C-alpha cells in the first residue's frame, strides 16, 4: 500500500498536424507521471476516428511499429491512473462512441461529486453503462440533450456535472477542451505552427515544440476546428480553486500552471518553511526524493544550512517490481532508498518532504537515517497536515488512514520516531504559490457541495 497519494490522469490533444499520432505519443510520454495503469489514443483520419489503448505504461501499449500505422491529422490521448488498480469496469481512455452519422471520442482527468446520482437517473431513463468512467457518463448526457448543435449539447451536459474535471473531446469536425468551473484540474493551450495543442501540463507542450498560449479558464470550453479557435463558457458561476497538490506533488517541476512555475513554488515553500520553523543546531538539509528536492533547496537557502544529497533512490524498482518474498515486500522503502552514510552520520539532519499522507515512507526513512548514524532527524513538510480525502480526482486513503487526521503534531512526531516535525502553514503555502488554491485535503473546506457523499466528516463550504 502506497504511503503517497495517487496521481491523477494526463490529457493530450492536437489538431491539424500530419504528425498528430507521433506528437501525441511524445506529449503523452511527458505526462506519464500522472498515470501508469493504462494509456490510449484516438486518431482522426478524415472522417474516421480510430482508437488504440491498453493497460500499462505508454511504451507497453503503443510501439513504434503501431505509430507508423496511426495515420491522421488530429488526435486526443490519455494516461490513466486507476483508483484501486485495474478492474474489469475501469475504462482505458479515450472512449470512442460511434453513432449512425457521427463519432465522438472523450477522455478526462478528475472526478465528479454527483456521478452516482446522475448514473442512477440515466439508468432509470434506460441508459446502459459499460464502465464507471465519467467520460462515458458525459457521453450519455450529451447524447440525451438533443439540442441543435453539439456545442449547445456539450454546454448543457457540462452544466449538469459537478466536481473537478478536465475533458478533451473530438468529433470528425472539431476538438473540444473543457475545464471545471473552479479550475480544480489543470489544462493548458498551446500552438505549434498552424496546429493547436491542449495538455494537462505545459511540460507536454515543451516536449512537442509547442508554444504556451494560455491556461484554459475555469468553466470554459475551447472549440478548435479547421477554421481556427473560439471560446465559450458553460456557466457564469466561475472562480479559481486549483488543486494545491498539483503544485505540492503531482505536476512536473518544469511545468507552469496559471503562469507559475512548479519548481519555483516548491522552492518558495521551502524558504517559507525555514522561516516558520527554523531548526537551530541542524547541520545538513536533505530531501526525500524526488518531489521534496525543490523545497529542500529552498529550506537550505533560507536557513543557511548546507543542502546535500543524503538519500539515493533506486529508480529500477518501480511499477513492475515484484518482491520474491513477504519479508522483502515489507522492506519496500529500504529497497527503494539508500542513505549516504558520510552525509548523515553523527549529524543533526533536516529531512524535507513535499507531503505526508499515511506516513509509511517518511517513518521508514527516519529509521534508515538513524540506523545509518544520524544523531537527530527533524522532518519538515512543505504542505499543511493532510487530514481529509479528495473527491475531485486524486485517489486518497480514507480519513482513518491519514496520519494527520485527528492526531496532534506531538503524536505524529512520536509515530515517526523523529526528533521534531513541522508543516508549512496554509497561508505560507498560498504565499509560496502566489494564487488561490483548493486546500480541502488540509482543512476540509470543500469548494463544491459534495452531493453523493452525505454524512462525511468535513467542514463543507457551499
- Widest sheet: strand ordering: 3-2-4-1-10-9-11
Helical residues, percent: 25-40%
Query: Mind telling me the C-alpha Rg?
Result: 23 Å
Strand content: 25-35%
What does this molecule look like?
It is a single chain. This protein has 462 residues and is of the alpha+beta class. 30% of the residues lie in helices and 25% in strands. It has 17 helices and 23 strands. Strands 3-2-4-1-10-9-11 form a seven-stranded antiparallel β-sheet. Strands 5-6-7-8-12-13 form a six-stranded antiparallel β-sheet. Strands 17-20-21-22 form a four-stranded parallel β-sheet, sandwiched between helices. A hairpin with a 4-residue loop joins strand 7 and strand 8. The longest helix has 15 residues.
Give a quick summary of the entry.
With 462 residues, this protein is an alpha+beta fold. Helices cover 30% and strands 25% of the residues.
